[in-house]
Specification:
80 residues; mainly alpha; single chain
Length: 80
Amino acid sequence: MPKDPFHLNLIWILLQVWVKFVVSGLCLIGGMVIGVLATVYGVPFWIPSLVLVPMVLSRRVYLSIFMLGIQIALLSEIIH
């Protein structure tokens, strides 16, 4: 383990970036699972858009990614 502050800061920054990618990926996958369940129950594809737009504008990152996953799953039903 390095003792100098430069490498410790670099390791800390890379760890934070890695955690953000993992949490974002889990939010996207969770949203897609909920989106697939929503397609089974017949939820229209435009309903999550009403929630997605305010979340993107309010800069809530993880909730926006979650809603984007739902939207992707619902739109894939239309494209498929």
